[in-house]
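Could you help me review a protein record that somebody else here produced? Here is the record exactly as it was handed to me:
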Amino acid sequence: MWLVFTKEIKELLRDRKTLFFMVALPLLLFPLIFGSVAYFSGKVIKEAQEKTLNYALIGAQYAPEFAAKMAARDDLLLIETTVTRADEAGIKALVTEQTVDFVLVVPENFSNDIITAGQLTLSLYLNDAGLNNAQRRVYEVIDDIAIVNQADAFARLGVSEEIQVGLLDPILIEKISTADKREDLGEKIGGLVPYLVFILCLQGAMLPATDIGAGEKERGTLETLLISPIPRNQLVLGKFFTIAFAGVTSAMITVGSLFVWGVVMSQGMAIKLLTEFMGAISALDFVLMFLMLIPVVAIFSAVLLSLSIYAKSFKEAQGYMTPLVFVVIVPIIIAMLPGIKLEGIYAWIPLTNVALAIKELIKGTMDYVALVPIFLSTTFIAGVLIAFCTYWFKQEKVLFR
């Protein structure tokens, strides 16, 4: 078995294409992709926040102070229009035809005197389907005027500042979270970690699995391997461990690369936060995460090797393996749904239970008793799939179809 494993590893190391996808791609391309997405996303959001918006103001004569404050903003540009408040279709057309970014209609009863005017309603027309900061900017102007009007009304009514606070906010809720920083951050990102690691393990094992089975068929080296005195089950295990090793290695290189590049590119505060978060996770939790990945990788490797053995060609094997990504995503998404916890039936569902356990370990709220059904279910399924893969490899009609 180890002779076959050594042989397969040497062949992988000689293959520049495999080394590129297992080492160079995770080290350079994946961080570049994630970094580019983060950079351009931040750039787009920043541009949207700083973009000068065109607007039309209908009824400005009823609120001269408000109109003046709107015109004084550098991020807003007034566009004159002849559309009246009665022409609602015309108002909407100004926005849909992108003549302006938004239209604000001031009511005729607008007044700074809250006592006589009461609550006022301004109509804001905008396309709210995209990234738009119009409403935020309008509220910034309105809030300034509203605060002054409130203070003036309270002063005229003779209401003290203490009572003003009570009238504006009669009841406050003081939120006291029992979760520490680790649990809070773990709840937010804990579900993404198994998603990333599972996909990376699967992707990292796909290319070696395709080459080890279907690739050997195409090269004509499978027949030579079969007539060797090595038992079939040893041949299967040698190939199986090669695929599992490749998958884990690719995943660890990618995660390590993302971590290193993240630290290099992040600011000091982000590094400190990340360091504190990682330091809060015990060595035992890291070991348990790695141990839980072993049967998961075994499941992936057995399925991939079975498909590769069955396929007639390299291309056919890739066609069989590609849909597996979607199959793996489903149980991970289930683990990310609100209300799904590592208890009951979910502790026995393969992949879902491991994803939930990794999330709990990151949060620091793991019930270690739940490890029993996790290891039992995943190890049992991995064993069954390895046994099936061995049986599959012994079928001549499968090997030479």
Summary: The CA atoms of residues 285 and 361 lie 6 Å apart. The mean pLDDT is 82.
